[in-house]
């Protein structure tokens, strides 16, 4: 299938919106990016579907602030209703004190990520999200 720039933009936007939502504590927006039966391999558990993702994210410490940086993003394969994206994700985190002052940032690691997207109800959604550690935290 011939890829247009607009197709690449639409697919890439799913990845960017996912991590932007995480960093902004917008858990509902993140969950909506999941397909109905989409899976996310997260912290040793498999989350299935938007509700499971929302439930897990609502458990995050609200004092923990993150910045997820995506690099080397590429569309590896694409079909009529599916696509695979690969990228590196570098995560930074900081924890706020009682005054909401952020502590020093810590590099939480670099992960080698794969997102399999599916076209569902006219929107690209995450069918399977997985990653493996590339470089450990500092």
Brief overview:
With 138 residues, this protein is of the alpha+beta class. Helix content is 25%, strand content 51%.
Mean pLDDT: 96
- Rounded radius of gyration (Å): 15 Å
Count of folded domains: 1
Low-confidence stretches: none
Q: Any guess at the CATH architecture?
A: Roll
The computed structural class is alpha+beta
Number of strands: 6
CATH class: Alpha Beta
Strand content bin? over 45%
Helix-residue proportion: 10-25%
Topology (SSEs and partners):
Blueprint: H1 5-23, H2 27-32, E1 34-42, E2 45-48, H3 49-57, E3 64-78, E4 82-95, E5 106-120, E6 123-135
Parallel strand pairs: 1-6
Antiparallel strand pairs: 1-2, 3-4, 4-5, 5-6
Structural commentary:
The chain has 138 residues and is α+β, with helices and mostly antiparallel strands. It has one domain: Nuclear Transport Factor 2, Chain: A (Roll). It is built from 3 helices and 6 strands. The radius of gyration is 15 Å and the shape is globular. The mean pLDDT is 96. It comes from Paraburkholderia fungorum. Residues 12-126 form the SnoaL-like domain. It holds the Pfam family SnoaL_4. This is Nuclear transport factor 2 family protein.
């Amino acid at each position: 299938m011939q890829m247009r720039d607009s197709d690449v933009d639409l697919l890439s936007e799913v990845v960017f919106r996912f991590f932007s939502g995480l960093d902004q504590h917008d858990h509902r927006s993140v969950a909506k990016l999941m397909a109905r039966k989409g899976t996310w391999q997260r912290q040793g558990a498999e989350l299935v579907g938007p509700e499971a993702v929302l439930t897990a994210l609502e458990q995050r410490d609200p004092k923990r602030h993150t910045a997820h940086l995506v690099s080397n993003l590429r569309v590896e394969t694409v079909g009529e209703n599916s696509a695979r994206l690969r990228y590196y994700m570098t995560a930074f985190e900081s924890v706020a004190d009682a005054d909401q002052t952020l502590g020093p940032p810590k590099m939480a690691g670099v992960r080698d990520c794969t997102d399999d997207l599916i076209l569902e109800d006219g929107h690209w959604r995450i069918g399977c999200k997985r990653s493996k550690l590339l470089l450990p935290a500092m």
